[in-house]
Each structure stands twice: as structure tokens, then as C-alpha cells.
Amino acid sequence: MSSVRRGRGSIRQGLIAAASESAILNPDAITAATRQETVPIALFAVVLGFVALLVCFTRGYVLLYGDAVAHLGIARRILDSRNPGLSQLGGVWLPLPHLLIMPFVQKMLWWQTGLAGAWPSLLCYVVGAAGFYRLARRMMVPRWAFVATAFYLLNPNLLYLATTAMTEPLFLAILVWMTLLTVECVDAIQALETHVNQKRPRSQKRDLGHADLQMKAIGRKLIVISIVIFAAVMTRYDGWIAGAAVWCVLAWQVMRTRGLFAKIVPEFVLFTLITVTGPLLWLWYNQHFMGDPLDFMRGPYSAAAIEKKTAPLGAKHYRGWHNIGWSLLFYTRTAQVDAAAWETGFAVMAAASWGLWLTLRRGFQVPQFSSAQRAAILLWMPIPFYMYSVSYGSVPIFIPQLYPHAFYNSRYGMEMLPGLVLFTFITVAWLERTWTATRPLLVKLLPRIMLGVAALNSVAMMYFVPLVLKEGIVNAATRMPFESSIARQLESFPQGVPILMHNSDHIGAIQQSGIPLKQMLSENDYDSWKAALSDPAVKAGYVVAIAGDPVDDAVKAHPLNLTELTVLCTTGQPCARIYKSDVWKP
């Protein structure tokens, strides 16, 4: 056993040493990134992330998105509620982001300021940066991998989201690493296939032993990938499609390689089980706690229900409804504006599309490039996913560049950021090789030019306010003052008195007031909620009724023994009425 372990260690050390030596001897080598290369990238991301947090926090941007406030509230109520536990995760948003925020959000100050969501997002930003650079090094030479990573990390939309409780930084990190590990695994399988097919009669026994070690290493990598797939499935529904695509790619590679499947049957079975466990577990959760395995698709808080609730009365469906062409246009246009300033997003999309074509046809024409790198096309998965979601999933996307010139779900375009940047620089690297003989001076200056373009793109986007941040500012203009006015009223109530209030739409008011969620009588605890709605004056000391919500209906049905204290109305929001019970007793 010890000799086998030594053998594995020597193989691993040999591969690392060979990669390092290759990179030193040949600066144009396309190979796996070393730790010495990756650490500075991660440190660069740490500095950028904390600068972004300082800017966004001091300007009050961290809690602009209502979804970010809601994510924090869900994470908080897992432990702070009348009925704590996993049932508080809800049945629509997937649970991993809330579980990661949960340890931080229990600190009241971090919940109120939004810092509880910033720490996990910043960590994901750094981890995603390291993964993106490592993936880029598998596709291009070090100088272009660095410039591509700089372009990715300097994106102001990504920097802003990395300071919030939104799920995009987490999912982007998972998507990048899932793609990287898939490329590495396919590369290892193809190397094994080449090794096994070589005829070496004098060293056949030694070669077979080396092949067995390679097969076991591939089996372990499959298990690691399945864990990453599980994380993706538990983060966003995009991850369900990405995970299925990764399983299909790797299953095909394993089955077509002679002798590999037979050697790693236990690992492959575990890889498959973990992959399918995520969706099955979420379906079971919805059935167990919500009474419907598809509650996330057709329940009261699903995308379909929200779209129906928010659409103007008698209005036609949004553009893109049951129309794949419009859906493709809306999503790709959003991805362009999220990735680049002004109208340069068209150039980025064109370059990325050409890079995709080069990858599919192996147009790199360099010895180090193998067909394993084609697995990087997984980064284009968001396009078909959102085409379907916009057309048939009740997920509209509005940006000011397209009719109706509004702001809604523009952050979804961020899912394409890694793919657009990576494949754009594949095209740039191809141009460098193409121009080497004809334009030597331009080729020499090209890396500096592109690094300047990356910095200029970031500055221009910040100057004109990046789209994702602009959406947050616009949509928070009426919500935040309304919640602040409610919060001031909540702060004036005696400590510990139960308050009846519907939390789902305006939990930000409770967050600002600093009142523990267990003090609230809300829909998060079914029994106390139903009892309070049937007799508000007896069950609650104070009642906050927002026009049109269940509490407002309950007050209209049972108005006895309630004294109206104040009415709060702000532009663009329904009015809130505050009541005090005349009969409530501790």
C-alpha cells in the first residue's frame, strides 16, 4: 500500500514539475496552471473585491436589490423564527446560498448592513478568479490567460454583485470550476487512452500499473466533479442543466475508453448517484414541506405566479413569450451590455462566437491544444437555458436598450460573462498567431493594448453606471424609503411585543428595525400565522397591514379592538396602515 501511495505521489509531483518546467522553458506553452501562477491572481481578486466592498458599502449599494434583502431574510429565519429549521428555506430559491450566508447573518449588525451576504460572495469572487485563470491557462498562453482574467475580474457588474447577497458570484464560481474540472477530466481520459493504445512490449507490466493509477485518479476526479454538480444544482436552476450536460460528456468519455469503465465502476456509480441526488432531494423537499414536488415551478412564489401578479391588468405577455427568437435577442443583448461598455458588447459577442468556432474546429492549430478543451463550451450553457426560461418559464428580461426600455432581471446576462471573456481572448490569441509573420510590431504590443482595453472597459462601465447596479438603483427608489418608514414605526414598538406582518414582500423593514424575526407573527410559521389572521387583536400587540396583502384582508375581516395609529404612503408603493391592539395581553 505504501509503495502505491508513493507511486501516486511521484506521478503527481512529476506532472507538476513537468508543467512548471514546460512553462519556464516555453512561455508559449498551453498547460495546467501552477500554484505559483494562481496565488497572485487570487490575491489580485482579494484586493479588487475589498475595494469594491468599500465603495458599494459606503454608498449604500449593498442592499439595493430586493432579492438580496430576501436572501438575507431567509438565511436569518433558519435559526431566528418561531419555527426554526430547514423548513424556513422555502420552496423556490435553492438552499445553498442561504446555508452559506446563515452563519454570518445571525450577527444583527451584519444582517442590517448586508455584510452577512458580502463575505460569502467575496469569497466566491476570489475562488472564481482562481478557477477562471486556471481554465484560461488550459486554453491559451500565460500572457493571454492573465489579460483575460483581468478583463473578467474588472467587470463592474461582477464587482458589484460580489458585495451583495445575490447568487451570481456563487454560481459563476461553481460554473467555472465545473467546466475546468470537466476539461481536466476529459484531458486525463484522453491521455490514458493514448497511453493504453501505445505498444510497449518491454515495459508492458509497468505501463499497465501506471494506467491503473491513472484510472483511479480519474475515478476520484469524477467524485469531486459530482460534488461540484451537487453544489450547482443547489444554487441555481441553471445548474440542473449544466450538471446534466457534464454527466453526459463524462459518461460518454468513460464508456468509449477501453477498459476504463470496468476499473472505476464504484466511482462512476457514486458520481451518478451524487449527480441525481440534488434534483431528487429538492423535489422531495418541496413535496415534504410545501405539499407539491413542483412547488418551485407552480407555487404561489414561483416565477409564473410572480409574473402573473406583477403584469398589468389586461396587458399582453412580455416580448419573448413563446418566441425563441426574441428570447435569444433579449438574453444575448443583455449579456453583451453586462460584459462591455457602450455598444462594444457587439464586438465581444462576435469575437466570442468566432472563438467558439475555432474551438469546435480545433482552429488553434497549436500542438498543446487537444480536443479536451472543447468541453469548455459548457460555458455557453446559459444561452439555451435562458432562451427556454424567457419563452416558456415566465422569466422576462428587460433592459433599457430594448423595448419596453425598463430594468428587470438584467443580472441574468452575467451567467455568460466567463464564456464571453474566455472565447473572446481565444480569438485574440488566434489573431496574434495569424499576424506573427505579417504584423510583428502589432503582435508585440497586442497584450499591452488588450490589457489597456480591459481597464478602459471597466472605467467606462463605471462612469456610465453598470447595468446591474443601475437596475438596483432604479428599482430600489420607491421600495427602500417605504421600508424605512415602516422600520421607524417598528422601532417605536415595545420590545418583545408580537407584531403581525406579512414578511415576504418587505422583510427589509424588519431588517432595518433590528427586530428579531421570532417576534413577528408571519407566514413563516403556519400555525401562529393562521391563528393571528383569524383574530389579529387577540394574537398580536401591533399589526402592520400593507394594502392587498393577507394581513390587510384579515384586518378588514376582523377590525374589532384595533386602533389605527398611522398610515404610511410613498410613491410607487401600496399604503401601509399601523394598528395597535386594545385587548392583547402578554
Describe this structure in words.
The chain has a 5-stranded mixed sheet with strand order 2-1-3-5-4. Strand 1, helix 22 and strand 2 form a beta-alpha-beta unit. The chain is built from 25 helices and 5 strands. Helix 10 runs antiparallel to helix 11. The longest helix has 30 residues. Among the domains are: 28 residues; 119 residues; 136 residues, no CATH class; 106 residues, no CATH class. The protein is globular, with a radius of gyration of 27 Å. By secondary structure, it is mainly alpha-helical. The N terminus is likely disordered.
Brief summary:
With 586 residues, the protein is mainly alpha-helical. It has helices at residues 2-25, 35-58, 66-77, 96-105, 108-113, 115-137, 142-153, 156-161, 168-197, 204-233, 238-256, 260-263, 265-290, 295-298, 303-310, 324-339, 345-360, 382-392, 417-435, 440-463, 467-491, 507-513, 526-534, 536-539, 550-557, and strands at 499-501, 520-521, 542-546, 562-568, 576-581. The chain has a five-stranded mixed sheet.
